[in-house]
């Protein structure tokens, strides 16, 4: 399973990567720039994206819309993790194609459960 974490804060990125590694096997790529992350999505197919909302270059909602335009990403789970608690953001994010919306600080058990849920269909496909 290949995961892309799009998070510009190095500390947050490290925390998310460590939590994801406890649940999922495979490569975990961390990118802090939304435009470079989008280029990576054009180059290869990740099985899961974890996206922050506030990023250099684009917002998480904007990157989600752009990723959803790539045919290979039509059904790839996108988990948004953000400190923004505005209720309208979660609605906008889901409308853009976010699968699951979590607020920071992320609770480790809930985060890992979300990853397990989204990984199950991918792991079954790989069998």
From TrEMBL:
At what positions is 4-aspartylphosphate found? 52
Keywords tagged on the record = Phosphoprotein, Transcription, Transcription regulation
Read off the InterPro entries from this record.
Bact_response_regulator, CheY-like_superfamily, Sig_transdc_resp-reg_receiver
Q: Which Pfam families match?
A: Response_reg
List, alphabetically, the SUPFAM superfamilies matched.
CheY-like (SSF52172)
Per the UniProt record, the source organism is Rhizobium halophytocola
Q: What is this protein called?
A: CheY-like chemotaxis protein
Domain Response regulatory: start-end pairs: 2-119
């Amino acid at each position: 399973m290949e995961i892309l974490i799009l998070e510009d804060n190095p500390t947050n990125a490290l925390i998310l990567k460590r939590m994801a590694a406890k649940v999922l096997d495979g490569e975990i790529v961390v990118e802090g720039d939304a435009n470079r992350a989008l280029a990576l999505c054009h180059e290869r197919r990740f099985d899961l994206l974890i996206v922050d909302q506030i990023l250099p270059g684009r917002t998480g909602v904007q990157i989600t819309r752009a990723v959803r335009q790539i045919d290979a990403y039509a059904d790839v789970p996108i988990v948004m993790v953000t400190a923004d608690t505005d209720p309208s953001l979660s609605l906008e994010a889901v409308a853009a194609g976010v699968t699951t919306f979590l607020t920071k600080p992320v609770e480790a058990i809930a985060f890992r459960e979300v990853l397990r849920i989204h990984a199950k269909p991918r792991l079954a496909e790989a069998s």
